[in-house]
Write a structure and sequence with these properties.
It is a single chain. The N terminus is likely disordered. It contains eleven helices and no strands. Helix content is 62%, strand content 0%. The termini are close together. It folds into two domains: 79 residues, no CATH class; 98 residues, Alpha Horseshoe (Serine Threonine Protein Phosphatase 5, Tetratricopeptide repeat). It is mainly α and 243 residues long.
Length: 243
């Protein structure tokens, strides 16, 4: 993706949360005799969909521990599938369970979720092995060439490694694929500032001033004291901020 500060919510019993979600679907004003919209009349497939939407909502709120608890409940009742494995891997990565997350991502490399799995593995590798992260993201962009978050993360890591051509190409694609994402626009602006290129005319003055400060700090760093630009502020770390 997306970055954010997670907001944790109390974990609920899976069946109770599902009943609440289904009740909301039914609507308070629906008379009991209109069974087509009541929880009892919703098909098993509809119940699964509602439960998955509940879990997805928890992920977007940053309630990753609660999402893991509900994934346990969902897979107990309906069985695992590639989509829930991806949700589990994301939640594990975002709660610090990196080895478990990597195992689940690797299991998805031959699935329709290959690009997302490669992205997750790249985010795990980025803090300690940026070269491997870049290789994984290169592969991910081939699997899904129109996902802006992949290009953004590839571009910023390339920028950190002083790979200017790759950074320019990737950040330019991210910014144009998702023009409403401020993080992607800021990363492209940082590249332009470092490369001595003109900035976009509509860049807000406060953003431009911050970008110029970051660029000066970047250029002034000593070889034995590299600048630490927080990856959490630059990469698409959480599902909620991935377009």
């Amino acid at each position: 993706m997306r970055s954010t500060h997670p907001r944790y919510v109390p974990a609920a019993v899976a069946s109770g949360a599902l009943a609440i979600a289904l009740a909301l679907l039914a609507g308070c004003a629906t008379p009991p005799q209109q069974t087509a919209a009541t929880p009892a009349a919703i098909s098993p497939v509809g119940q699964e969909k509602t439960y998955l939407e509940l879990i997805d909502g928890l992920m977007k709120q940053g309630a990753y521990h609660a999402a893991l608890a509900h994934l346990d409940g969902f897979e107990r009742d309906y069985g695992p599938r590639d989509g829930t494995r991806l949700l589990r891997a994301d939640a594990e990565r975002l709660t610090g369970e990196r080895e478990a997350a990597a195992t689940h991502y690797e299991a998805l490399l031959n699935s329709p979720y290959r690009a997302s799995a490669l992205h997750g593995l790249a985010l795990i590798a980025a803090p300690t092995d940026p070269a491997r992260a870049i290789a994984l993201l290169d592969d991910a962009t081939r699997a899904d060439p129109t996902r802006a978050s992949l290009w953004n993360d590839l571009g910023f890591l390339a920028l950190q490694q002083a790979d200017w051509p790759r950074a320019a190409r990737a950040l330019g694609r991210a910014a144009e694929l998702a023009p409403d994402q401020p993080r992607y626009q800021a990363n492209l602006a940082l590249y332009r500032e470092l490369a001595g290129q003109p900035q976009a005319a509509d860049l807000p003055p406060d953003v431009l001033a911050r970008i110029q400060r970051e660029a000066r700090a970047w250029q002034a760093r000593a070889e034995d004291d590299p600048l630490h630009l927080r990856l959490a502020d630059r990469l698409s770390l959480s599902p909620g901020d991935v377009p």
